[in-house]
Structure formats: C-alpha cells, structure tokens
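Sample entry (179 residues):
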Amino acid sequence: TILSRCQIFDFQPIKPEVMVQQLKKVAEAEQIPYEEEALHIISQKSEGALRDALSMLDVIVSFGAGRLTYAATLETLHILDHSYYFRLVDALLGGNIQASLLIYDEIIQSGFDGFYFLEGLVGHLRNLLVAQDAITLPLLEVPPSIQEKYYLQAQQAGAHFLLEGLQLVNQCAIQYKES
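Predicted structure, serialized as tokens:
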C-alpha cells in the first residue's frame, strides 16, 4: 500500500570522469591549486558520492595548506600509491624475490595492513587483465597517465601470469583473513 503511493528514484553513482570535472570546477572557483591525479584519487575513494568527494577535498586542502597535492591526498586518505604495485609486479616478472620482499616490507613499515595490501594487489592484477587490450583501457577508472602504465605492464606480464597471480593472491587473502 505504501509503495503504491511513493515515487521511487533510482540514483546512479556519479562516474569518476564527471566527478573529476566537478571537483575541478570547485577547486578553480575557490582558487585552490590542484594536481589532477589527486582529483582522480578523491573521485575513486568517494565511490560516486559528490558530497563525500567535496568533504574529502575540503579536509585535504585544510591539511595541505590550501593546496591539493597527490602526496597529501594519499597521506590524508591513507591510500597505498599505485607505484608500489607496479614496482612489485616488475620485480616478480623479473624473478627478483629479494626486491619483492623489500617492497612488501616498505609497505608494512609505512603502516599499511597486510590484508589491505593483498586487496590492493588483487585490484592491480585485475586492472592489468583489463589493460591487456587497448580497447578496454577506458574501463579503468584511473588517470590517462596511469592507464598507460597499466597497458605497458600488462603487455609484459601476459594473461597466464596475471591469472595465476590472481588465484594465488586471492588464496593468500582468504588465508590471511582466517589466520
């Protein structure tokens, strides 16, 4: 009875590229210097909610002395930079186990949880699978500069390596969570 008297609205999350454009407008209107990659990180972290993105922008600018930088965004939102995952996969592709262990230790010493790292690695490997073909690159919700890095690393890795890696890291994440 109640539903028949209600009008239902289905809202879709705002797409990351639209979110970035809105954040640019706000930053320019408020005369806040910004780095484009920082806007992309905020749009990803807000998961399609503009209000959340604006709140994050405000907090980061407040702590960043009136500027929006990529480094300040990563630090304030406690996000692990893409570069760790690119370096780790490069080391694994090169068979350099020692470098892989040192990168992992660097991540843990930076205060990131092992499970959080594993979730990020799963996402990175999945993104590499998507980046195997240039046609699917736009599906990655990252800046164009990062899309290019994914594409180049995906060409080096190969689908077999990525699928085996995904399976192994998923098993590690499950076991890590249960331990």
